[in-house]
Amino acid sequence: MIDWVDVILRETLLFAAVGLFIGGLDDFMIDLIWIVRLLWRRQIVFRIYAPASMENLAPPDQPGRIAILIGAWAEDAVIGKMLRTALARIDHEDYRIYVGTYANDPRTINEVRRIARADGRVRLVEDGVDGPTTKGECLNRIWRALLRDETIEGVRYKAVVLHDAEDVIHSAELRLFDRMIEHFDLVQLPVLPLPSPGSRWIAGHYCDEFAEAHGRQLVVREALGAGVPSAGVGCAISREAMARMAMQGRGKPFDENCLTEDYEIGLRLADLGYRGAFVSVPATKGGLPVATRAHFPERIGPAVRQKTRWMVGIALAGWDRLGWQGHWAELWMRLRDRRALLAALVLSVGYASLLLWAASTAGHFAAATRPAPLPQGLILLLQINGVLLLRRAGMRFVSVRKFYGVREALYAIPRIFPSNVIAMLAARRALGEYWKLLRGGTLKWDKTRHIFPEALPAE
């Protein structure tokens, strides 16, 4: 029996080692490009030009009105706090917040209506539609309301900004968008999840992943000329680009049959030749960037459901809907976006190998025998993977420390394990959900419960 365990152990170990090596090498190339770019900017660019911050950012050439679009289904617990905070914080002279609601969600409607009556900068959009539909459908209804307002008031919006009902909007966000949208058709700001003291390991892993994604990976993506995907929040789209998307969608800029319409719209704009940019500008010199802050799921169930939606929309349906096109960098980035399921498989086999190794060790100890030695090539591959793992942990520490400090950065290293567990559980669920869609299942807004922070984060 122990011999069979050893055979299975070698095979699973080889599969996991090869998969981890390929993934680790892929991540290493991203980190290498990021380091080279960082050194170039520090040693060359910043000796000629001062690093940008909101303190030295030039004002827009032609200031314009900006619309913030928020889809709200069952958000009565947070939408009032979010709107009041945004209205008090936002430093911009001309904007309007559109909130799309559903007829069978009177609590959310009443929350928004109370604020809209008191402040004309908030516009309630209620069209008698029962929910939940999809977020894309809700955003399209908001878009039509925006067009009606443009016709009635005779003022054309300069840009459309996407946000969720639980977001904490930075006070300088719209001023930054007003300037940058004159140079790009899509502008994505960093998204920084808020740490939750009561959920250090579940909610905390979002801090780690977004710190890496918005601290390094999107920076590299833009530097290589690949399309910048929207995160769905803290993202501005030019009015011209919105009109083009609406024309393509027969009046609907957002795809209503999509789980990740925000991710797709960035790549669709890139395919049409529009320019996107990831913009990370500190509010003050040497300070934190202008970013969207929000709480993420604090329990494993909601976290798995959220990751499931991302995997289905990006790794599975995204493959079908967006295909493979563009230059080498675009293809590379789309491959990275869609590797989540394969990565989860490799991780599952890797953890299974650890259990088999424990069983093999215990079996040989009981039988007073020694296992056959592993092939030298496999040992070398495992050693390389060990180095790549240490490199990954180090880069995660650096990324998290930049935004959250040393304490969270230290937690980030052991949080790799719960992050992997959530990814594996989400991958399993994603396959089942995608199979339902292939068999004619309907899409609906599978959202998680949101909370708004009691104490606002410092800017």
Question: Secondary structure elements and their pairing?
Answer:
Blueprint: H1 2-48, E1 66-71, H2 79-89, E2 95-100, H3 106-118, E3 122-125, H4 135-153, E4 159-163, H5 173-180, E5 186-188, E6 191-193, H6 203-223, E7 235-238, H7 239-248, H8 261-271, E8 276-278, E9 292-294, H9 300-322, H10 328-337, H11 340-367, H12 376-404, H13 406-412, H14 416-438
Parallel strand pairs: 1-2, 1-4, 2-3, 5-8, 6-9
Antiparallel strand pairs: 4-7, 5-7
Helix pairs in contact: 1-6, 1-11, 1-12, 2-3, 6-12, 6-13, 8-9, 9-14, 11-14, 12-13
Describe the fold and architecture.
- The structure is a single chain.
- By secondary structure, the chain is an alpha/beta fold.
- It has a single domain, classed as Spore Coat Polysaccharide Biosynthesis Protein SpsA, Chain A, CATH 3.90.550.10.
- Helices cover 57% and strands 8% of the residues.
- It is built from 14 helices and 9 strands.
- The chain has a 7-stranded mixed beta sheet with strand order 3-2-1-4-7-5-8, sandwiched between helices. Strands 6-9 form a two-stranded parallel sheet.
- Strand 2, helix 3 and strand 3 (122-125) form a beta-alpha-beta unit.
- Helix 6 crosses helix 13 (406-412) and helix 11 crosses helix 14 (416-438).
- The mean pLDDT is 92.
Helix content: 55-70%
The span between the termini is 61 Å
Q: Quick one: biggest sheet?
A: 7 strands, mixed
CATH superfamily: Spore Coat Polysaccharide Biosynthesis Protein SpsA, Chain A
How do the strands of the widest beta sheet line up side by side? 3-2-1-4-7-5-8
**Counting H and I runs of at least 4 residues, what is the number of helices?**
14
CATH architecture identity: Alpha-Beta Complex
